Amino acid sequence: MAFWLVKSEPSTWSWEQQVAKGAKGEAWTGVRNHSAKLHMMKMKKGDRAFYYHSNEGKQIVGIAEIIREAYPDPTDDSGKFVCVDIKALTPLKTPVTLVAIKAEKSLAEMALLKQSRLSVQPVTADEWKIVCKMGGV
């Protein structure tokens, strides 16, 4: 199993909206960055992803599961981009803020800090464990 981080602005698509989709999940569409697309193409069914509220909140709020691997994004008229389907698994007991991540020295190399604008990013197994512990799960 691999680990990822996906970003969404809560005013566009919030954790609560993702949770409301239930077991059938929702397509993670609209990614228009080549590097993020390459990450999505590596995602496998069963992989886990941190759900990060960007711009508004700047915090990891939950854990999602990849339930369908990369396929053509139906919102992309160019045909160049892909999407995956994800479903919400569990909220973090305590959201992990960007400030808290920056303060944790063992997370200094986390992609979230190095590639802050990238909407889909890999997370190492060690980073996953640390953030889960910080979030109370």
TrEMBL record:
InterPro entries per the UniProt record, alphabetical: 5hmC_binding (IPR052181), EVE_domain (IPR002740), PUA-like_sf (IPR015947), THYN1-like_EVE (IPR047197)
Pfam family, one: EVE
Alphabetical list of CDD domains matching this protein: EVE
Domain of life assignment: Bacteria
Domain annotation EVE: ranges: 2-134
Signal sequence interval, chain numbering: none
Stored PANTHER family: THYMOCYTE NUCLEAR PROTEIN 1
Protein name (record): EVE domain-containing protein
Organism: Rhodopseudomonas palustris (strain BisB18)
Lineage: Bacteria, Pseudomonadati, Pseudomonadota, Alphaproteobacteria, Hyphomicrobiales
